[in-house]
Amino acid sequence: MSSKRLCSIHKIRELQLPLIEIQEQYEVIKEIGSGDYGKVMLAVHRDTESQVALKAVPKITTPLKDFLIEFHYSYFLSPHNNILDTYDVAFETIEHYVFAQE
């Protein structure tokens, strides 16, 4: 047996997130939570009219790799009945990394 793993679903690649301005693609209804690690906003996607929760964490305190790990685990655990759905939507703004949940 090889000591080197051929594949792992837990390996996080460095990705280039699209840089967008939230207000261009979403109408933010209100902030529904905030804390030391970020904030959550209730928003509606302008093109699809889908209501989502946008979880935004500040870049200044959150390395991209840490954000991608949180997004990865949230996305892959979301099919469970007791966990919020995380959509395949992640992007960055000038100050935040952001992903969308139900």
Automatic annotation (TrEMBL):
Record key words, sorted: ATP-binding, Nucleotide-binding
Residue ranges of domain Protein kinase in the record: 26-102
Binding positions (ATP): K65
Signal peptide, first to last residue: none
Organism: Araneus ventricosus
Superkingdom of this protein's organism: Eukaryota
Molecular function terms, GO-annotated: ATP binding; protein serine/threonine kinase activity
InterPro entries: Kinase-like_dom_sf, Prot_kinase_dom, Protein_kinase_ATP_BS
Protein name in UniProt: Protein kinase domain-containing protein
